[in-house]
Amino acid sequence: YIEEGKKEGARLLAGGKRHGNKGWFIEPTVFADVTDDMTIAREEIFGPVMSILKFKTIDEVIDRANDSVYGLGAGVVTSNIDNAIKVSNGIRTGTVYVNCYDVFDSNTPFGGFKDSGIGRENGELGLRNYLEHKTVIIKRPDDSMP
Question: Per the record, a Pfam family (predicted)?
């Protein structure tokens, strides 16, 4: 994704190199001048890569975020809590982090919308996926039926 971002014209601000000699780790990476049609803006990158896209209105942010087949998680960084709430309510994603990222409580469900994720994990809602519900009705000999 890093090479693809550079090839498509995004400006690499930080990172972009391998981290260490073992494994498949990369440095935290930040791209600017990213446009909606770039691969790094369209696909889920499961790694420390941030793409910065400019916007004019909050509605534009919501529309652009929803113009994706993915919806696992989103991050909103703002000093305006009203904007944070509007974006959080407007985008179709399983988790929205406001002014933080990857803060997690195991009592809350986790999972994505659209083509992201495979259901919900954690919390009471996530446990329901592992349950089977059964109804048993027994008429005892001394019960009268209506």
Answer: Aldedh
Separation between Cα atoms, residue 121 and residue 143, nearest integer Å: 43
Of the listed ranges 41-45, 91-95, 127-131, 139-143, the one predicted with least confidence:
127-131
Question: Quick one: pLDDT band at residue 67, thresholds 50, 70, 90?
Answer: very high
pTM of structure: 0.71
2-130 maps to CATH 3.40.50.300: no
CA distance 132 to 106: 22
CB 34, CB 6: distance < 8 Å:
no
What is d(CA 56, CA 102) in angstroms, rounded to the nearest whole number?
A: 27
State both tokens at 24: 């498949």
Of the candidates 96, 1, 82, which has an alpha carbon nearest to the alpha carbon of residue 40?
Answer: 1
Residue 2's closest CA among 38, 42, 29? 29
Helix (H, G, I), strand (E, B) or coil at 120: coil
Alpha carbon 128 to its chain's center: 21
